[in-house]
Write a structure and sequence with these properties.
5-stranded antiparallel β-sheet, Uridine Diphospho-n-acetylenolpyruvylglucosamine Reductase, domain 3, Alpha-Beta Plaits, 464 residues, homodimer, 7-stranded antiparallel β-sheet, alpha+beta, 18 strands, 18 helices, Uridine Diphospho-n-acetylenolpyruvylglucosamine Reductase, domain 2, 20% strand
Chain lengths: 464, 464
């Protein structure tokens, strides 16, 4: 994989300019924005940016690029975290932000077909009066296409699943410029290979979404939010494990470790006990929400937590979850003068307490500060680690920490990334986690994109 | 794709006999049993059968076969319905029935890792005292490996999903004899391509499962079963659509058309009104089940159904669902002297009433008898059609009917198969449904199995 010679790059840019006029740009600041990654990785800018308005634009761009073996990188809003948008050997960024329409809505089927550039907040505004909503919430107001590409999830995945479950079918442009539909709109199907789920989470390396049909859910009649604290991480995790075994359908269940709670107290002027804390949310009708909260409270008590508070009143709910809602900013404030980034690991829930506790020990041993927050129902957690700006030695120590974290998660039967993806930064751990299976991924990649033009340099396949 | 010459076949059989002794058989009746399909398709027998005891046996068999380009067909219990087990160009059947052990059980994670030959009933017996169960119920007591291979589902998929959702990760032998793990045991992951879901539903054409880690669910505290009738299929379907929009988490919701009800009355001596009928099941605690039943009853009333009966008492529940439980036998009894088979189509639920009603009209116009039963929450339904034994002209009429049914489902945005798979019989409709996407499936197949030795002759790829 090498950068194309400048003459070829110029030729591709000329053809794109002819095709798209001022919807093509090779202005440096535009290109730089499109390698924005929400990461501390060095920007690797593409050679040009196409603002697509339609699937035809995407097909046209891919066909021009394919002819010259020019790399192509899809761009939603730029909220990915592992360098997915970087262009290590140049290429053309296709900006989907103007492909942000609802194509069709079927309330009876509880599905909506959208263009990939629509963001989850815009979609939920659009749906507001329908009684339905799109629950997946990765934090950022990401585009749905980007979320599908990284198999995003977040706080509500414990109840509503991840993008793996949310995408019913898709339309995508493949590396040769052909447009396919991955599946019918039927809720289930036994017809052929599951191309939908092959493309979801492939980080733009196998195809570019031009339409997605996604599942919606009824807006819950009643929402209850609650909070309680525990003596140990183990007590908190065991409370969640038993609750799930008792069929409590948590809508959200978030763990904050003692350091995260301290940071939130300092940032938001709260007076929470600096102990492992669970923030929970229940969805249902009044009776069901009350019963979920009562059962949860009982189980939490049996694990030594006696301060469970909950409310269905929106204002009180906001108050109870205030710490959780401000956690990212609190973490950043607790690491002043630092670059902060959020790492991501996920283990079977039976190993979560071990993994979090060992990670806390690791941080302490290495004199690092890293408040921890977890989507505990899924065994997924984040560590917010920071290092003094522009200090390479400190930066290296953080990378070594994330390496140990990935190894720890993998050794416990887990994954190096629950929801952020591989991108450029976790290439090494993909192989560590999945061994020879990565060879078969590469075989698929080579078969579907023989010239390796779709988002090259990600995943760490042999050529890279 | 052609049959190997007899000398090569003999050589492979000799090597397998040397490797496996009396766990290899080329006895004709054994081979014939292994092409059993629960279908009216002609048996196409394999050249030999290996009874595997371990993943090493599977690896060894695949390596011997791969050397000679000998086809390989996985066999569970032989309950597939579309000719998945036939060996059109011969080959070796690997019988997984002795690989039926539980490898490990993690109640905290609500997962179990099993060998593929274990059947769902055996697994549920094994789990009995754990408080957990494996909910997916395709009717037959299928092997879990077979269920994963065909992406099976059944009555409880509306609540618990299909094998697509049930399989967390797998171990599989690929066409070159290499053993891979498709994913970690973490509940979610953003690491790499979703090989798990690529293999699930691939009908043994991409790899052979040697272990599966599957999700379990808490055994519900209370189960309530109910039944009610409607004036039209549309009223029944609209009741289900509104109920799902109101967040009623049906555990099962089955539709029987008037002809199915008549057949059940005749077979079981029941006196149900011969009208479109819904059989429902709710899972939860006492309060939640009562609230689900009450809301459902209200919605059903609004659609003209005033005879909803339900009970949580096991004996009464069995009585209420008696018609549904005996439906297959009732359908067979209503078609005396006939070969009966069950076809399968699935549409977005918004089109289900149209699809069922048009199918009834089609049956009538063509003087065919075909009671209909549907997993209505998923838009999936079956028609039991029969034709006089050994009457080719009548058999042809039935095939023409299933062709019209597939076309109808596809034209409504649905699929030619919700849960039975493609096998040999639905090859034509796979292309009709998915167009060029099938080319990319074939590209993947060629890349992962270049000699086309894994279950050839299925899916209708170009070579076949």
């Amino acid at each position: 994989m090498a950068r194309l010679d400048q003459k070829t790059v110029d030729q591709v840019c000329k053809e794109l300019e002819t095709a798209f006029g001022n919807r093509f740009s090779n202005n440096l600041s535009v290109r730089d924005t499109h390698s924005h990654n929400e990461t501390k990785l060095r920007h690797e800018v593409p050679d040009g940016v196409v603002y697509a308005l339609s699937k035809d634009d995407v097909v046209k761009t891919v066909k021009i690029c394919a002819r010259y073996k020019m790399p192509i990188i899809g761009f939603g809003v730029g909220s990915s975290l592992e360098g997915q948008l970087n262009a290590p050997v140049g290429g053309i960024s296709i900006d989907f932000s103007k492909m942000d329409q609802v194509v069709s809505f079927s309330p009876e089927d509880m599905t909506v077909t959208i263009q990939p550039g629509i963001t989850r907040e815009t979609l939920n505004s659009w749906l507001r009066d329908s009684g339905l909503f799109f629950p997946i919430d990765p934090g950022a107001n990401a585009s749905i296409g980007g979320m599908a590409s990284t198999r995003a999830s977040g706080t509500s995945a414990v109840r509503y699943g991840t993008m793996r479950e949310a995408v019913l079918c898709a339309e995508a442009v493949m590396a040769d410029g052909r447009l396919i539909r991955t599946a019918s709109r039927a809720k289930k199907s036994a017809a052929g290979y599951d191309l939908t789920r092959l493309l979801v989470g492939s980080e733009g390396t196998l195809g570019l979404f031009t339409e997605l049909t996604i599942r919606l859910h009824p807006i819950p009649e009643v929402v209850s939010s609650g909070i309680c604290t525990f003596a140990t991480i183990g007590d908190a995790c065991n409370t969640v494990i038993e609750s799930i075994q008792c069929a409590i359908p948590f809508a959200r269940v978030e763990l904050m470790d003692e350091f995260m709670v301290k940071a939130c107290n300092a940032y938001s002027g709260l007076t929470l006990e600096p102990r492992p804390t669970l923030c929970v949310e229940f969805h249902g009708d009044e009776a069901s929400v009350a019963s979920q909260a009562a059962t949860f409270s009982e189980i939490a008590s049996a694990h030594g937590s006696s301060n469970f508070q909950q409310s269905t009143d929106p204002e009180k709910r906001a108050q109870l979850w205030k710490a959780r809602h401000s956690a990212l900013w609190a973490a950043e404030a607790s690491l002043p003068e630092c670059d902060v980034f959020s790492t991501d690991a996920c283990v079977p829930i039976s190993r979560l307490a071990d993994c979090v506790t060992e990670t806390q020990k690791d941080l302490k041993e290495h004199n690092l500060i890293g408040p921890i927050i977890g989507h505990v129902g899924d065994g997924n957690f984040h560590v917010f680690v920071g290092y003094p700006k522009d200090n390479e030695r400190e930066e290296k120590r953080i990378y070594e920490f994330t390496e140990r974290l990935s190894e720890r998660a993998i050794s416990m039967g887990g994954t190096c990334t629950g929801e952020h993806g591989i991108g450029q930064r976790k290439i090494k751990y993909l192989r560590m986690e999945l061994g020879d299976a990565v060879d078969f991924m590469w075989t698929i990649k080579q078969a579907l994109d023989p010239d390796n033009i779709l988002n090259p340099g990600k995943y760490g396949f042999p050529e890279n």
